[in-house]
Structures are given as structure tokens and as C-alpha cells.
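Lab channel / #folding
Pinned by the channel admin:
"Please post every new chain as: sequence first, then the C-alpha cells as a reply. Keep commentary short and put observations after the output so the thread stays searchable."

First post following the new format, from NK:
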Amino acid sequence: MENIEGISLKKCEDLPSLFQNGSKKFHNLRLLDLTNASPTMVENFIQSRNLNNLRWLCLHECMIQKLPSNLFKCSRLQVLHLTKCNNLHTIFYMKKLPIAISLQELILSGCSSLQELPTSIGQFNALQELNLSQCSSLQKLPTSIGQLNALQKLNLLWCSSLQKLPTSIGQLNALRELNLSKCSSLQELPTSIGQLHTLQNLYLGECSSLQKLPTSIGQLNALQNLNLGGCSNLQELPTSIGQLNALQNLHLWGCSTLQELPTSIGHLNALQKLDLGSCLKLQELPTSIGQLNALQELCLSQCLSLQELPTSIGQLNALQELNLYWCSSLQKLPTSIGQLNALQKLDLGRCSKLQELPTSIGQLNALQELNLSQCSTLQELPTSIGQLHRLQNLCLRQCSSLQKLPTSIGQLNALQNLDFLVCSKLQELPTSICQLNALQNLDLGGCSSLQELPTSIGQLHTLQNLYLWECLSLQKLPTSIIQLNALKKLHLWRCSKLQELPTSIGQLNALQELNSIRCSNLQELPTSIGQLHTLQNLYLGECSSLQKLPTSISQLHRLQNLYLWGCSTLQELPTSIGQLNALQELNLSWCSSLQKLPTSIGQLHTLQNLYLEGCLSLQELPTSIGQLNALQELNLSWCSSLQKLPTSIGQLHTLQNLYLGECSSLQELPTSIGQLNALQKLDLGGCSKLQELPTSISQLNALQELDLGGCSNLQE
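Reply from TO:
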């Protein structure tokens, strides 16, 4: 026992008998974990032993009010974790503190009752990290904190009662990181903060009472990261900020009262990222911003008052990302924007007053992503856009005033994603769009004025996804669509004027998903659909004019989901449907004209879910339904003409859920229902003609839920 080096007694109320002998000194004990241990437990273990070699001690979430005095004698202790000791009011209350000799890391995070630190904290000459985050009652720091010559990291995150810092904080000669984020009562920083010549990271995010920074902040020669995000009362930055020669990241996101930046900001030669997002009152940028030669990312998103960019912005030779999302007052871009040779991403989404793009935009040789979504007054794109030979993503969704595209769009040789979602005034696509040799995704969903696709669309040999949902004016698809050899998804949802699919659609050799839901004028599917050997999902829901399926549908050997919900004129299924060897889900809900199921349905040995809800004309189920060996859910709710279930239903040994609610003609259940060994839920609610339950129902050992509500004729 005396040679043991580590002990964990987490959540122990009392000492285990093994440790109750206080004479055991544990001379070699280095690590001790007493997380969640009771105060008595902590006192008994630490107070009665000599722990001279202890290096690491964790008292996480221990409800102690003070530290055991014997702990202060641990002269070799390096790490002390006191996280969430919510009852701890004071620490280090003795004058002699051998513990101060070696302690390097002191974690007091979440000690919500701790109101102050003792003056003796200054004795901890080896301390490198002091974590006081979420000490919500801490009102001040002692002057002696300035004596912590080795301190590298001071974390005061969420110390919401802390109103000021002592002047002595400037004496922390080794400090590299100071976190004051969410210190909502902190009104100012001491002038002495400028003496922290080793400070690299200063976090002041969401210090909502902070109104200004001291001029001395410009003396922080080593500062690399300055976070002022969410300082909602910060009205200005000192001119001296331009002296921060090492600054790489400046975050001013959410400084909602900041109206301008000092001209000196242009002196930040090392600055790589400048975040001004949600600076709601910022109306303009200083011309000097063009001097930021190292700037790679400039975020101006949600700067709602920003009306224009300075011409000098074109001088930002290193800029890779420019975010102007939701700059709703921005009316135009300067011509000089075309000089941003390194720009890879330009976000102009929701710039609702932007009516046009400068011709010079075509000079952005490195641009890979251009977002123009919800630019509701943008009527056209400049011809020069075709010069963006590295552009991969072009988003024009909800550009509700966009009526046409320039022919030059076909020159975008690297374009992979083209999004026209809900461009409601777009009437046609230029033929040149078919020259986009790298295009993988084309989204035309909600283009309600689009009447046709270009005849040559079949030339898009790399296209994988074509979305045409709610193209309300689209009457037909061009025959060339069958040449889209890479197409995996074709969405035609709610193309209400579409009457037919191309006869040769079966040549789409890579198609995995075909969605024609709510194509209310679609009367039939071409026979060639059976040639879609890669098809996994076929959605035909609410195709209210569809009366039958072609026999060839049986050839879809990879089909997993067949969705025919709401096909109200569909009267029957082809006998060949039983050949769908991979089918897992068949949804026939509210096929109100469907009178029967083919006997071959029993051959669907992979079928897991069969939905027949609302099949009002269905009078019976075929006996073969008992052969569905994988069936887990069968929904027959609202099948108001169904009078009985076949005896074979008892063979469905994997069935977990059986819904028969509102089957108002159902008079009895077969005795075999008691054989459904896996059944967990049986819904018979609203079966008003059901008079009795078979005795065998008591054999349903797995049944968890039985609904008999509304079975008004059911006798005891």
C-alpha cells in the first residue's frame, strides 16, 4: 500500500475500509482523485495523512466550504482542481503556505460562492495557470496578483460580478493569455494593461458594459488575437490600436454601437482576419483599410448601415474571403473589387439593394464561390461573369428579379454547383449552360416561370442532381435528358403541368432517385422505367391522374422505397410487383380507388413497412400477405371497407406495429393474431363493429400498447 502512486475515490461518501487506517502515509502517492466525494470524506483522507509527494489533486464538485489545512503542506503539489466546488467561500486562509512552492495550475472554475482571492495568492511564484471562469460572485482581484511572475494564463470568463482589474495586473510579466469574456460588469481596463508585453491573446467578448479601451492597449507588442465580439456598448477604438504590429485576428462582431474605425487600422501589417459582422451602425470603412497587406478574411455580414465599400479595397492583395452577407443598405460594389487577385469566396447574400455587379468582377481569377442568394433587386449578371474560370459554386437562389442569364455563363468550366432556387421570374436558360462540363448539381426548384429546358441539356455529362420541383410552367422534359449518364437524382415534385416523362427515360443508367410527387397531370409512366437498374427510390405520391403502373416496374431490382401515397385514381398494382426483391417500404396510403392487392405481394421478402392507410375501397388482403417475413409495420387505418383479416396474418412473426384504427367495417380478428410474437403496438381505435377480441390475444407477450378507444360494440 505504501508504494501506491495513484488513487481514485470518485463519488465516495465514506472512506473504504482499506483506507480507514490513518497511519498509512502513502509516501509515493502522486495522483489523488476525489471527484464528487463528500466533505467528510475529503477531510478524513487528506487531514489524517502525510501527502508530501502528491503532485496532482482533483476535488471536482466536492461541496466543501474550505480546504483541509493539511493540504497547504503539500509542497510538491503541481495541479489542484477545484472545479464546481460551489460551497467554497475561501481558499489558502493560512499564512504559511508550503503548497505555494510548486503549484503550477489552479483551477477554480465554477466556484460560484467564491467572492475574493486571499492576498496570499501572491506567494504562488510557480503558478502558470489560474482559472477563475464562472466564479460569478467574484467581485475583485487582490493587488498581490501582480506578484505571480510565472503566470501565463489567467481565465476570468463569465465572472459576471467583476467590475474592474487591479492596476498591478500590468506586472504579470509572463502572461500570454487573458480571458475576460462575458465579464458583463467590467466597465474599463486599467492603463497598466499596456505593460503586458508578452500577452498574445486578449479575450473581451461580450463585455457588454465596456465602453472604451485604454490608449495603452497599443503597447501590447506581442498581441496576436484581440476579441471584442459582442461588446455592445463599445463606441470607438483608440487610435493607438494601429500600433499592434503582431495582431493577426481582430474580432469586433456584434459591436452594435461602433460607428467607425480609426484610420490607424490600416497600420495593422500582420492582420489576417478582421470580423466586423453585425456592427449595425457602421456606415463606412476608412480608406486606409486598403493598406492591410496581410488580410485574408474580411467579414462585414449584417452591417445593415454599410452603404458602400472604399475604392481602396481593391488593394487587399492577400484577401481570400469577403463576407458582405445581409448588408441590406449596400447598393453597389466598387470597380476596384476586380483587383482582388487572391479572392476565393465572395458572399453577397441578402444584399437586397444591390441591383448590379461591376463588369470588373470577371477579373477575380481565383474566385471559387459566389453567393448572390436573396439579392432581390438584381436583374441580370454581367457578361464578364463567364471569365471566372475557377468558380465552383454560384448561388442565385431567391433572386426574384432575375429574368435571364448571360450566354457567357457557359464558359464557367470549373462550375460544379449552380443554384437558381425560387428565381420566380427566370423564364429560360441559355443554350450555352449545357457547356458546363464540370457541373454536378443544378437546382431550378421553384422557378415557376421556367417553361422549358434547353434541348441540349443532355450534354451535361457530369450532372448528378437535377432539381426541378415546383416548376409550375414546365410542360415537358427534353428527350436529350436521357443522355445524363451521371444523373443520380431527378426531382420533379409539383411540376403540375408535366403530363409525361420521356419514353426513353430508362437510359438514365446512374439514376438512384426519381421524385414526381404531386405531378397531378402525369397519367402514366413509360415502359422503359424498368430499365432504371440503379433506381432505389421512386416517389409518385399524389399523382392524382396516375391510373396504373407499367408491368416493367418489376425489373427495378434495387428499388428500396416505392411511394404512391394519394394516387387517388390508381385502381390496381401489376402482378409483377412481387419481383421487387430489394423493396423495403411500400406506401399506398390514401389510394382510395385501390380495391385489392395482387397475390404476388407475398413475394416481397425484404419488405419492412406496408402502408395502406385510407385505402377506402380495399375489401380484403390476399392470403399471401403472411409470407412477408421481414414486415415490421402494417398500417390499415381508415380502410373502411375492410371486413376481415386473413388467417395467414399470424405468420408475420417480425411484425411490431399493426394499425387498424377506424376500420369501421371490421367485425372480427382471426384467432391467429395471437401468434404475432413480436407485436408491440395494436391500434383498434374506432373499430365500431368489432364485438369481441379473440382469446388468443392474451398470447401477445411483447404487446406494450393496445388502443380500443371508440370500439363502441366491444363486449366484455
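NK: The CA atoms of residues 19 and 45 lie 8 Å apart.
TO: also worth noting, The chain has a mean pLDDT of 95.
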